[in-house]
Every structure is written in C-alpha cells, then in structure tokens.
Design goal:
- The chain folds into 2 domains: about 5-85, Rna Polymerase Sigma Factor, Chain: A; about 125-178, Arc Repressor Mutant, subunit A (Orthogonal Bundle).
- It is built from 7 helices and no strands.
- The protein is mainly α.
- Helix 2 crosses helix 3 (about 65-85) and helix 6 (about 145-150) packs across helix 7 (about 155-175).
C-alpha cells in the first residue's frame, strides 16, 4: 500500500478547508461590513476563500494557519471594496455607549470639532515632513505600506516603523492635558 504524495495531501487539505473556512470568514465580514452593504458579505467571503486557497496552493501564502491567512485576505478584500465604493466607516470609541451619551447641539458639536482639528494640526506640526507624508499616504490616501515606501523611496520596514512612531507621538500629544 503506497502513501499518497505530499501534494495530494495538500490538495485534500485545501478541499476540506474551503467548507470549514467559509462560515468563519462570512461571519467575520458580516461583523465588519456597514449595514447597507451586509448583502455583499456572501460574495466577498467566497472571493476571500478562493483567493486564500489559491495563494496556499501556489505557495505564495505566508506560513501559518489557513484561517489566519484567510482573515487577512478578508480584511484586505473588505478594505479594497469599501475604497472602490467610496464608503467610509469611521470607527468611534462611542459605539458601545450609543444612546447613553447626552445629545449635544449642532453648535456645540461644531465648536468641539474645530477645537479637535486645531489640536490635531498642532500635533501634526511636531512630526517630521517624512512622518507627515507617511501618515498622509497610509491614512488619508489608503495606500499599502509597500506602496508608501516605494513612493517615498524608503524600505517598507522603515516606513512601518516611522508610521508607528508618528502615531505614538500624535497619541501622546493629543492625550496630554491642556
């Protein structure tokens, strides 16, 4: 009795993984899609599973579990779809407190927003030009780390580290009292 080849075992694992992956990826996408796009979760989950398994088969997927890789693919597919549609889903800290916060008048909200923007502008001035460029490319333009690094002519690792440091500086500036 001969043993099946490694390649045949991998194909079998991939075929068994697709039905197991789909419900988990689908649930992940449903939680993250805006309510008006919830109907797209099924199609996006199918695309995600297909892309993840194809990358796994070609050997371009990173090492680790298929599910972990599929979640990363799902996140990228979701961001790409939202960017194409022009949908912005701001993440607020108040989502869990919705309904328990006092209602503020539009005038008060406008003044708070102006104050917030002034504090952000002041904090941004403390960053170097390169750090500001990285944050703009990554957070405003929505480009990937590699694309930002290529645009600025620096290594992707350096780009990632500068973004992290810039965000830490901004966080400390914005959370400082006064």
């Amino acid at each position: 009795m001969s043993r099946p080849s490694t390649e045949a075992c991998e194909r079998t694992d991939e075929n068994l993984a697709a039905p197991a992956l789909h419900p988990k990826v689908y649930a992940y996408l449903r939680r993250r899609l805006p309510p008006e796009l919830a109907g797209q979760a099924e199609d996006l989950a199918q695309q995600t599973v297909m892309v993840a398994l194809q990358a796994r088969r070609k050997g371009t997927a990173r090492r680790g579990s298929v599910l972990r890789y599929a979640y990363g693919v799902a996140r990228n597919q979701l961001c790409s779809m939202l960017r194409r549609r022009g949908v912005e889903r701001p993440v607020t800290l108040d989502e869990g407190l919705a309904g328990r916060l006092p209602d503020r008048s539009p005038r008060v909200r406008g003044l708070e927003e102006q104050e917030r923007q002034a504090r952000i502008a002041l904090a941004m001035e403390s960053l170097s030009a390169l750090e500001r460029a990285i944050l703009h490319l990554r957070c405003v333009d929505g480009v990937t780390n590699r694309q930002a690094a290529a645009t600025l002519g620096i290594a992707p690792e350096y780009c990632s580290s500068l973004k992290y440091r810039a965000l830490c500086k901004l966080r400390s500036e914005l959370t400082a009292p006064g």
